[in-house]
Amino acid sequence: MGTFKDIFNDLDTSDEKSKAGETMLSNIKNTMSDRVATKVKFNKLLQDYKSEVLPYIIENFDSLNDDAQQSVTRINNFFCGLHFLVHMAEVAQKSLFQIEKDNSEKPLPLSDTFNINQSGTFRLIQTSCKAFARRCDQRNGCHGNFKTYISSHLQKHKMNFPLQPLNGNRFNILFSNAGYVFFFHREILEFLKQFNSNNSLLKSRLHDIQEPFYIAGCKALGLVSTFITTPLWNVLENKDIHICDMNIRYLQLVNFLNDI
C-alpha cells in the first residue's frame, strides 16, 4: 500500500494543477484478483485510502448524503472464480489425507513412492496420470499400450482417452482425473497384471489400485467433479453469465455443501 501511495504522489508531483494521482484514484471503481489474503487486505486498505482522499477532490463532498458518499467511495472487489477450483483441490487433498489417517485401524499399505504427507488417493491419481496419460513419463509410462488395451471401452462409451497430465493443468484436473481413474480402475488392474512390467512406476500402480480405500477416494472426488466443480467451471466460463450474477450461485453452492 505504501508503494501504491508513492506512485500516486509521484503523479501528483509531476502535475500539481490537475492532481492526476488523486483524480485517478477517484476513478477506481473495481478491482480484480485471486483470493490471496494479502490482496483481500489490500482491497480494504485501498477502500479506506479512497475514502480519505475523495473529500479533497470532490467539491462539496461533505454536503452529500450518506448514500451518495457511499456510491462514489465504494470499490467493488471481484475475484477469479477459477482460482476457487484450485483451492478446492488443495483442500480436498488435505481432507483425503486426514480421512485416510483417521479411518484406518492399521496403517494403509504404502507403495515405494510413498510420501508421508500425501494422501494415498492423490498418489494413485498422480501416478496413474504419469503412467497412462499422453506425454507424461516417457521412460516408465505406457500410454500407447494402455490406450490400446481399453480401446473397446472407449468406443463403447464414445469417449476419447480421458486421463490428462496433472502438470500444466490447474483447474478441475484433480477431480476429473479422479473420476476417470475410478471409472477405469478394473481395467487398470487387469492391464497391470497382464503387462508384467518391473519398472517402479507401474509396480506402484499395481500396488495402490488394489487398495479399496484409495478407490473410494477416487470415487468421492469424481462425484465432486460431476456435481460441483465441472458445473461450476462451465458457469464461470460462460460469457453470457455476468460476474455480478455469481453471488447467488456461490450462495447456492455454500448451502448445498452445508446440506450434505
Q: Short description, anyone?
A:
The protein has 260 residues and is mostly helical. Helices cover 64% and strands 3% of the residues.
Fold and architecture overview:
The structure is a single chain. α5 (81-102) packs antiparallel against α12 (212-236), α6 packs across α9 (173-183) and α9 crosses α12 (212-236). The chain has helices at 2-14, 20-26, 37-57, 66-73, 81-102, 120-132, 143-149, 151-156, 173-183, 185-195, 200-208, 212-236, 246-259; strands at residues 30-33, 76-79. It is 64% helix and 3% strand. It folds into two domains: 2-79, no CATH class; 83-259, no CATH class. It has a two-stranded parallel sheet. The mean pLDDT is 86. The protein has 260 residues and is mainly alpha-helical.
Indicate how many domains the architecture comprises. Answer: 2
Spans of at least 5 consecutive residues whose pLDDT stays below 50 are: none
Helix content: 55-70%
N→C terminal distance:
41 Å
DSSP E strands, number: 2
> What is the chains' assembly state?
single chain
Proportion of residues in β-strands: under 5%
Q: What is the arithmetic mean of pLDDT?
A: 86
Structural class: mainly alpha
Biggest sheet, open or closed, and with what strands and sense?
Answer: 2 strands, parallel
Number of helices: 13
Sequence of strands across the biggest β-sheet:
1-2
**What letter string, H or E per element, gives the SSE order?**
HHEHHEHHHHHHHHH
**What Rg is obtained from the alpha carbons, in whole angstroms?**
26 Å
Shape: elongated
